[in-house]
């Protein structure tokens, strides 16, 4: 019996779509100006060709005191509804710089309580072990 309670409609329509999520072996640091906004040895790397791979960092490793939730949201038929935060040390350029799927579809629960950052708005450094 299928135990999914919130399956992704995108995968139902396009079962050949492949999205992989793997632990990143190393440290990921997110900076805005001189401030470290996030630093983690527990990041996950999400790959969804043809898009660039994205690091998802656990909420516990993100300094939310430097972020402000915004009203912006987007929908992905594979991942769910994304919420957004602005990165305050980045000023106006940091608007909606971080997103997270707080209630992702069943297939993407590995990124629940993880945030991802736009590399065009903040600096994301990855140093492999």
Number of strands: 10
The main sheet orders its strands as: 1-4-5-9-8-7-6
**Biggest sheet, open or closed, and with what strands and sense?**
7 strands, antiparallel
Number of helical elements: 1
SS class: mainly beta
Unreliable sequence segments: none
Strand content: 35-45%
Mean pLDDT: 95
Topology as H/E string? HEEEEEEEEEE
The percentage helix is: under 10%
- What would you call the shape? globular
Q: Report Rg.
A: 15 Å
Q: Alpha-carbon distance between the termini?
A: 40 Å
Structure commentary:
The chain is mainly β and 129 residues long. The chain has one helix and ten strands; from the N terminus they run H-E-E-E-E-E-E-E-E-E-E. Strands 1-4-5-9-8-7-6 form a seven-stranded antiparallel β-sheet, with no helix packed on it. A three-stranded antiparallel β-sheet has the order 3-2-10, with no helix packed on it. A hairpin with a 2-residue loop joins strand 2 (26-32) and strand 3 (35-40).
List the helices and strands and how they pair.
Layout (H helix, E strand, L loop, with lengths): L8 H5 L6 E4 L2 E7 L2 E6 L3 E4 L6 E5 L8 E10 L3 E8 L10 E3 L13 E4 L5 E6 L1
Antiparallel strand pairs: 1-4, 2-3, 2-10, 4-5, 5-9, 6-7, 7-8, 8-9
Observed structural traits:
129 residues, 10 strands, 3-stranded antiparallel beta sheet, mainly beta, 4% helix
Q: What is shown here, in short?
A:
The protein is mostly beta strands and 129 residues long. The protein has one helix at 9-13; strands at 20-23, 26-32, 35-40, 44-47, 54-58, 67-76, 80-87, 98-100, 114-117, 123-128. The chain has a seven-stranded antiparallel beta sheet, with no helix packed on it. It has a three-stranded antiparallel beta sheet with strand order 3-2-10, with no helix packed on it.
């Amino acid at each position: 019996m299928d135990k999914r309670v919130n399956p992704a409609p995108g995968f139902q329509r396009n079962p050949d779509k492949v999205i992989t999520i793997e632990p990143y072996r190393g440290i990921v640091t997110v900076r805005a100006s001189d401030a470290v906004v996030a630093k983690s040895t527990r990041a996950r790397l999400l790959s969804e060709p043809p898009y660039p791979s994205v690091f998802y960092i656990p909420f516990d490793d993100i300094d939310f005191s430097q972020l402000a939730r915004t009203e912006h949201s987007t929908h992905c038929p594979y991942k769910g509804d994304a919420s957004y935060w602005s990165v305050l040390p980045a000023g106006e350029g940091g608007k909606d710089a971080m997103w997270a799927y707080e209630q992702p579809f069943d297939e993407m629960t590995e990124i629940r309580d993880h945030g991802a950052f736009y590399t065009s708005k903040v600096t994301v450094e990855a140093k492999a072990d």
